[in-house]
């Protein structure tokens, strides 16, 4: 039996020196995109078939690598000098099968 575990691994991008900025847009670009699913990142050699990493915003929307229409946007009237953008990564099935799911 294969048990599929989708554990969210949170991470934060912290920006400093942003005083005067009231709109933050984050996009995901990478040369390491899974050849089996354009919505996830692959390892640098594409050796780990069967899974990849997906990046999500805190509102559960996936950021699609290298897609100009996929972005995370935060806008407010305050203009603090430091901003934080919170995301999480998930190890996911890429559709190519394999019995190598595990918790990370």
UniProtKB/TrEMBL annotation:
Q: Where is the Fimbrial-type adhesion domain?
A: 7-90
This protein is called what? Fimbrial protein
């Amino acid at each position: 039996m294969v048990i599929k575990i989708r554990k969210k691994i949170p991470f934060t991008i912290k920006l400093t020196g942003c005083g005067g900025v009231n709109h933050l847009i984050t996009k995901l670009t990478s040369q390491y995109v899974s050849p089996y699913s354009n919505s996830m990142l692959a390892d640098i050699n594409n050796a780990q078939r069967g899974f990849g990493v997906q990046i999500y915003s805190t509102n559960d929307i996936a950021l699609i690598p290298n897609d100009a229409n996929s972005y995370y946007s935060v806008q407010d009237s305050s203009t603090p000098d430091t901003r934080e953008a919170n995301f999480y990564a998930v190890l996911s099935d890429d559709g190519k099968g394999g019995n190598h799911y595990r918790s990370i």
